[in-house]
Write a structure and sequence with these properties.
Layout lengths: L3 E5 L4 E7 L5 E3 L9 E2 L2 E3 L5 E3 L1 H6 L7 E2 L13 H9 L3 E4 L5 E5 L2 E3 L1 H20 L5 E6 L5 H14 L2 E7 H8 L9 E9 L4 E9 L2 E10 L4 H20 L7 H18 L4 E11 L5 E9 H7 L1 H5 L2 H10 L9 E5 L6 H11 L12 H14 L15 E5 L3 E6 L7 E8 L8 E7 L9 E8 L11 E8 L5 E7 L5 E6 L7 H16 L30
Parallel strand pairs: 1-11, 11-12, 13-18
Antiparallel strand pairs: 1-2, 2-3, 2-4, 5-6, 5-7, 8-9, 9-10, 13-14, 14-15, 16-17, 19-20, 19-22, 21-24, 22-23, 24-25, 25-26
Helix pairs in contact: 3-4, 4-13, 5-12, 6-7
This protein binds adenosine monophosphate (AMP).
C-alpha cells in the first residue's frame, strides 16, 4: 500500500507532508524548493492550466481567468453572505450553478470549486510523488473546524476528481494540535487555543484534548482578515507617496501594482525578523514626462505596525467571543498554538500573548504545521505511527424538526463516530395515519438556521388514540459521515428507512464527466516543463459537462 500523505488545502496556500522513516512528519518540498503552493489556478487563452506561483503571477495580465480562494466557495450556495462579499471583491466571476451552488465562470465556461481545488490537489500530489519517488493515491485533507457536511463532502469530491482517495477529512485546529503532540497528553483534560492567521482568513478555535480525543469547543474568526490586508496597507501608502511625488496614479498600472504588492509582502516578511528593510523597484512606471520612476525607500517595522494597528485590533473580539462560547476564561487555556504565516509578525504574537495572558507556543513552522499534523494523522491511520488518537466526531448537532419550526438535537456535535442514537415518539393525534421525520444539521435553536439533510416518512400506522402508537427512530452515522435513519412502529414492527450521504453539490455523474474531460485533455496534451509550481498542460478546452438540473441528480 502506498503511503498516505497529509494535505493542508488552504485558502491562500497549500502544503503537503508525510511521515518519514523515523515516524516524524516532514514537509514535502517541490522541485523548485517551494515548501508551500499558492492555492491559485489560472487558465491561459489556449487552455493551459497553471497552478501555484505561476498562476498567481499570470493574474496581472489575466485576472478574470485566474482563480484564488476557491475554498471560500466549495460546498457553498452563491447567496450566502460571505460568498456574496467575496464575489464583489474577486476579479473573476462567481456564478450560480442550477442548484444554487457557487461556481466560477472562466473563459465563458462554468467551473465548480471542486474542480479548481482538484487542480491544487493534483499539483500537491505531483510534488509528493516527485519528492518521494513513488506513486501516491491516498491522502488526509484538512478543513476548517466549522466546515459543514456539504463543504467536507465537496472537499472529498475534489479529491475524487484529482484521482486521490481522501481517506479522512481532519479539522485544521486538530491537525495543528496533533503536530504539537497534544494527543500524547496522558493525564487529564488539556485546553488549547489554536490561533490561525493566514493570508486571507483568521480562525480561532478553542479545543480540549483528553485521552487522545479532540473536541472543538468553539470556533470563531474573521473570514475577511489576513496577511494580505497588511500587504494592502503598505501598498496603499506607497501608491499615495508616488502620487504625491510624481503625480502618477499607480492604481491604473496593473503591472506596477502587482510588483508593489509582492514588494510590500516581502518587506513585511523581512520586517518580522528585522527592524528595517528597503523596498527597491526600478522602472516601476513612467512619470508625467515619460521618464522612468526608480522607486526606493526604507521602511521600518514600527511604521508598518502604526499603519496596520486597526487590523491588529480586529483580532481580539473573535477570541473573546470564542472563549465565551466555550464557557472559558482566557486564563483557563493552557496552551496557545500559532498557525498561519502571518503569526510570525511580532505584533500579532504580542496581541495573542495579551489576550491569553501567556506566551504562544512556537517551535513548529506556522505555514506547515497543519500539513504536518495531517501527515501525523495519516501515519496513525496507516499504522505507521504508534500513537492512538480518536478523532472522528460529528461536526454539528444532528436533530429533527419538532412542531412548526423547532429543532430537537438527537446526536450532539462532537459525538465520536460511529455513533447511534434512538428516540421514541408517540402519535400526537387520534388515528394518526403517518409520521414524517425531517432531519437537520446545525447549532441553531431555530430550524431555519440549520441545514435540512433528509426526511423519512412512516405511513399506514395502526389506528389508535393519540399517544398510544409509538415509533422508534434510530439514527446511525458511520465514520464516513453516512447516515442511516430508520423509523419503526413498535407494535407492528413496520419500518421505513433512508440513507443520507453527505452531498458536496456535484452528482457522481458530474464528477465522472469532469474526470473524463480531464483524461481527454491529458491525452491530447503536450506536456510542458513543470516549473514554478505549474502543472502546465496544453489543451484545447473541451466544452464543459452540462450542469444537470437538480431533478437529474
Ligand atoms: P498562510 O495562508 O498560512 O500560508 O499564510 C500566508 C500569509 O502569511 C501571507 O500573508 C504571508 O505574507 C504571511 N507571512 C508568511 N511569512 C511571514 C513572515 N515571516 N512574516 C510575516 N508574515 C508572513
Amino acid at each position: 500500500m502506498s503511503r498516505i500523505i497529509g494535505i493542508d488545502l488552504g485558502t491562500t496556500n497549500s502544503c503537503v507532508a508525510v511521515l518519514d522513516e523515523k515516524g516524524q512528519p516532514k514537509t514535502l518540498v517541490a522541485a523548485d524548493q517551494e515548501r508551500t503552493t499558492p492555492s491559485w489556478v489560472g487558465w491561459s487563452p489556449d487552455g493551459t492550466v497553471t497552478v501555484g506561483t505561476r498562476a498567481r503571477r499570470q493574474a496581472v495580465t489575466n485576472a478574470s481567468a485566474t482563480v484564488f480562494g476557491a475554498k471560500r466557495l466549495i460546498g457553498r450556495k452563491v447567496n450566502a453572505d460571505d460568498v456574496a462579499w467575496f464575489a464583489k471583491l474577486a476579479p473573476f466571476r462567481i456564478v450560480a450553478a442550477p442548484n444554487g451552488d457557487a461556481w466560477v465562470r472562466v473563459q465563458g465556461q462554468p467551473v465548480s470549486p471542486q474542480e479548481i481545488a482538484a487542480h491544487v490537489l493534483r499539483r500537491l500530489r505531483q510534488v509528493a510523488e516527485e519528492a518521494l519517488g513513488e506513486p501516491v493515491t491516498r491522502c488526509v485533507v484538512t478543513v476548517p473546524a466549522y466546515f459543514d457536511d456539504a463543504q467536507r463532502q465537496a472537499t472529498r469530491e475534489a479529491g475524487q476528481i484529482a484521482g486521490v482517495d481522501v481517506v479522512r477529512i481532519l479539522n485544521e485546529p486538530t491537525a495543528a494540535a496533533l503536530a504539537y503532540g497534544a494527543h500524547r497528553v496522558t493525564e487529564g483534560r488539556r485546553l488549547i487555543a489554536v490561533f490561525d492567521l493566514g493570508g486571507g482568513t483568521f480562525d480561532i478555535s478553542i479545543m480540549s484534548v483528553e485521552n487522545g480525543i479532540f473536541e472543538v469547543l468553539a470556533t470563531g474568526g474573521d473570514s475577511a482578515l489576513g496577511g494580505e490586508d497588511w500587504d494592502r496597507k503598505i501598498l496603499e501608502r506607497i501608491v499615495d507617496e508616488v502620487f504625491d511625488r510624481y503625480r502618477v496614479d499607480l492604481t491604473g498600472v496593473p503591472m506596477a501594482l502587482s510588483r508593489l504588492r509582492d514588494a510590500a509582502e516581502n518587506a513585511k516578511k523581512a520586517l518580522s525578523a528585522q527592524a528595517e528593510a528597503v523596498i527597491q523597484l526600478p522602472f516601476l512606471a513612467n512619470d508625467q514626462h515619460g521618464a522612468p520612476i526608480n522607486y526606493e525607500r526604507a521602511i521600518t517595522r514600527d511604521e508598518i505596525e502604526q499603519l496596520t494597528q486597526e487590523l491588529l485590533d480586529r483580532l481580539e473580539a473573535p477570541c473573546v467571543k470564542a472563549l465565551a462560547d466555550a464557557g472559558l476564561q482566557a486564563s483557563e487555556v493552557e496552551e496557545v498554538l500559532l498557525v498561519g504565516g502571518m503569526t510570525r509578525w511580532p505584533a500579532v504574537q504580542r496581541i495573542v500573548e495579551r489576550i491569553f495572558a501567556r506566551k504562544p507556543s512556537k517551535g513548529a513552522n506556522p505555514d506547515e504545521v497543519v500539513a504536518l499534523g495531517a501527515a501525523a494523522y495519516a501515519g496513525i491511520l496507516s499504522g505507521d505511527a504508534d500513537d492512538a488518537a480518536l478523532l472522528d466526531v460529528t461536526p454539528h448537532d444532528l436533530g429533527i424538526k419538532v412542531g412548526d419550526s423547532g429543532f430537537s438535537v438527537i446526536i450532539p456535535r462532537n459525538s465520536m463516530l460511529p455513533v447511534r442514537a434512538r428516540k421514541l415518539f408517540a402519535t400526537t393525534a387520534d388515528d394518526q395515519k403517518f409520521v414524517s421525520i425531517e432531519l437537520y444539521q446545525g447549532e441553531s435553536a431555530e430550524l431555519r438556521g440549520n441545514r435540512k439533510l433528509g426526511q423519512v416518512v412512516l405511513d399506514h400506522l395502526p389506528i389508535g388514540p393519540a399517544g398510544t402508537v409509538r415509533v422508534e427512530l434510530v439514527i446511525t452515522v458511520d465514520v464516513e459521515s453516512i447516515m442511516s435513519v430508520t423509523a419503526r412502529e413498535l407494535r407492528s414492527g413496520k419500518e421505513a428507512s433512508v440513507t443520507i450521504r453527505p452531498s458536496g453539490g456535484l452528482s457522481q455523474r458530474e464528477i465522472v464527466e469532469i474526470i473524463n474531460r480531464r483524461r481527454q485533455e491529458d491525452s491530447i496534451l503536450a506536456k510542458l516543463p513543470s516549473e514554478g509550481g505549474t502543472v502546465a498542460r496544453v489543451a484545447t478546452r473541451e466544452q464543459p459537462a452540462a450542469i444537470p438540473s437538480d431533478e437529474e441528480k
